[in-house]
Write a structure and sequence with these properties.
It is a single chain. The protein has 405 residues and is of the alpha/beta class. The protein has one domain: Aldolase class I (TIM Barrel, Alpha-Beta Barrel). Helices cover 44% and strands 16% of the residues. The strands form three sheets. An eight-stranded parallel barrel has the order 3-4-7-8-9-10-13-14, surrounded by six helices. It has a four-stranded antiparallel sheet with strand order 5-6-12-11. Strand 3, helix 6 and strand 4 form a beta-alpha-beta unit. It is globular and about 65 Å long. The termini are far apart. The relative contact order is 0.12. It binds flavin mononucleotide. The site of flavin mononucleotide (FMN) has 27 residues, from strand 6, strand 12 and helix 14.
Length: 405
Amino acid sequence: MSIKVEFLYYFMIKKIMNRFNLVSASLNPVLFALYRQYLYWRYNDSESLSQAELIHEKSKKHLLSMSNSFKNHFDYFQSDKSNSIKLNSYQFPNPIGLASGFDKNCDLFVPMSYIFGLVTVGTILKNKHLGNIQKPLDGKIRVIVNSKNKSIINSQGYPSEGLDYTLNQLKKYSKNRNSKSKLILSFSGMSENKSIDDFLDNSETIIKSTHEYVDGYEDSRSSPNTEYNKLIQTSEITASLMSILNSHAPTKIKILKVSPYSSLSPSENESKSKFEIIKKFNDSGGNMVVLNNSLSIDVKNTYNISNFNNTRGGLSGNPLYPYTEKLVESVHKKYPKLFIIACGGVDTGEKAWSLINKGASFIELYSGITFHGLNLIVQINKTLQKKLDPYSYQTFIDKRNLKYS
Ligand SMILES: Cc1cc2nc3c(=O)[nH]c(=O)nc-3n(C[C@H](O)[C@H](O)[C@H](O)COP(=O)(O)O)c2cc1C
């Protein structure tokens, strides 16, 4: 398309969006689909970022520019108290959260706090880290979006601006956020030299310097995109991290993010090692588990994709959903009182409702909002209200918990 047509197209969408208020326009599925189409047509791979990552950065800017609109219209997302839910002394305005990785560097937590009941920022590292190498213009990319089956494959490997940048963002903007929504910091102590001592030291530094700005922490050792993570997914390291959290952030919400089963018929050994870590976390005072991170897949051989930067990558979105169901079901069976945040492939209210019936209390989203926009959050809130009417969400959760007390 020529520059002229591009301008007209952009102008038309902008004009339509400005006619309504921006938030209500962004919730319209047709306008969102047009906007998404425009972005994919307008931006391509650049020297440093793949098309999907570049579009993510552009969308972040748009979301940030709408901060005030989200604040003024937050009732679109959290219209009444019927979906609010309590965990210890923490009251969440609704059970829907932003999953880690979407706002890696704490740039968006203010607008997101007016939309979601909990917002997970990060995963942050102590030092600035570029993540896994890619050369988009030479055909090697680390994020692939498949709009047909609504999936994302990524091998970003924790790109992070580092602790200093994050801390600066938190100090600068915390006063503007909606304090009803809970802010969770996803962290990894990973360092270049891969020493366990450094990993724990870095984790401690991150927690000590950020605890006054956040409501909780997410221990993120389950990303499939760093080899090091495979070595540190042990119950011993879970115990060490919990001891750091219990010393420096005793009253904060403590969350463990878990990797999905590697197949839908997992071996006994795999289940055993997963449950060992969850047990250690639960016994040490952990509050919630996120089930799950993205699924490690063989991108080159099984999926036959040749322009990916790694042999393996993490699969998110629609195809991950059955894995989420399976893990939620089995963890709830074993630890019925542990709060579960179901994450992976949720893109309708019905899927969220089904996961809640399998034992989840919260839902987190990443891929779903990139394919369907923020309307997905409204849809999930509405579905819960409809299914539970005339009861509140809290009554439903309390009733379930009563069975196990
Ligand atoms: C591009 C991308 C980057 C991600 N980055 C992180 C991350 O930094 N830390 C983390 O724990 N999970 C990360 N995730 C995993 C998501 O938080 C989530 O667990 C996963 O995508 C499944 O949810 P979904 O199907 O709704 O996307 C990332 C996912 C994607 C697609």
